[in-house]
From TrEMBL:
Belongs to the peptidase C56 family. It comes from Gordonia namibiensis NBRC 108229. InterPro entries: C56_PfpI-like, Class_I_gatase-like, DJ-1/PfpI. PROSITE patterns: PEPTIDASE_C56_PFPI. This is Peptidase C56 family protein. SUPFAM superfamilies: Class I glutamine amidotransferase-like (SSF52317). It comes from the Bacteria. Gene3D superfamilies: 3.40.50.880. Residues 9-180 form the DJ-1/PfpI domain.
Length: 189
C-alpha cells in the first residue's frame, strides 16, 4: 500500500471476547504496515479473546480501557465484527459514548460485519449509506440507514467519514479503504 500513516493513531474497539480475529488482525496489520499506530481499546483491562467464527482463537493484550481512552488521542476508529463483540459493545454505555464521540469529533470510523450494531446503538447511521453482514440489514434500515450490498462503502455524509464492509472476504477492499482514508484524516492537536 502506497499510503503513509505516520503519526496516525487508530483505536480498535473490541469487547473482552467475541471479536472476529481476522477482522481485528488484518486491518491492524494494514495500519502498521503503513506506519500507523493501532491501539487496542476494550471495556476492561487484561486481554481480549478473539474468535474464528464460533471457535476461540487467540488472545490479545488490551492497550487501554475505555475508562482511560480519550477520543482526542486518536485519529480514527476501527470496529471489528464478530457476532458477540458488537452485541456486548452496544450494551456498554461507555463503548457507545466512545463510538458516538468519534462522529461528533469528525473523525473517520470503519466498521465491518456485525459491527454496525454498535453504530446503530450510538445513533449514527441515520441518513448514511453503509453495508454490513446481510443478517443485520433490517436493523440498519430500521435505524434510518441506507443499506447496500457492496464489499466496501465509504460514506462521506455527515461530519465524519464512515467506511463499512460486509464480511471477512471483503477485508482486502476494507483495508485499502481505511488506509486511504486514514492517511488523510490526521486531526491536528
Amino acid at each position: 500500500m502506497a499510503e503513509e500513516l505516520n503519526n496516525v493513531t487508530v483505536a480498535f474497539l473490541v469487547a473482552t471476547e467475541g471479536a472476529e480475529q481476522v477482522e481485528l488482525t488484518e486491518p491492524w496489520k494494514s495500519i502498521e504496515a503503513c506506519g500507523g499506530k493501532p491501539v487496542l481499546v476494550s471495556t476492561d483491562a487484561g486481554t481480549v479473546q478473539a474468535f474464528d467464527h464460533l471457535d476461540k482463537a487467540d488472545t490479545f493484550p488490551v492497550d487501554r480501557t475505555l475508562e482511560d481512552a480519550r477520543i482526542a488521542d486518536f485519529d480514527a476508529l476501527v470496529l471489528p465484527g464478530g457476532v458477540a463483540n458488537p452485541d456486548f459493545l452496544r450494551a456498554s454505555a461507555p463503548a457507545v459514548r466512545f463510538v458516538r464521540g468519534f462522529f461528533e469529533a469528525g473523525k473517520p470510523v470503519a466498521a465491518i460485519c456485525h459491527a454496525p450494531w454498535t453504530l446503530i446503538e450510538a445513533d449514527v447511521v441515520r441518513g448514511r449509506t453503509l453495508t454490513s453482514f446481510p443478517s443485520i440489514k433490517t436493523d440498519v434500515i430500521n435505524a434510518g440507514g441506507n443499506w447496500v450490498d457492496e464489499e466496501v462503502v465509504t460514506c462521506r455524509g455527515g461530519d465524519s467519514v464512515l467506511i463499512t464492509s460486509r464480511k471477512p472476504d471483503d477485508l482486502p477492499a476494507f483495508n485499502a479503504a481505511i488506509v486511504a482514508e486514514f492517511a488523510h484524516s490526521r486531526v491536528p492537536g
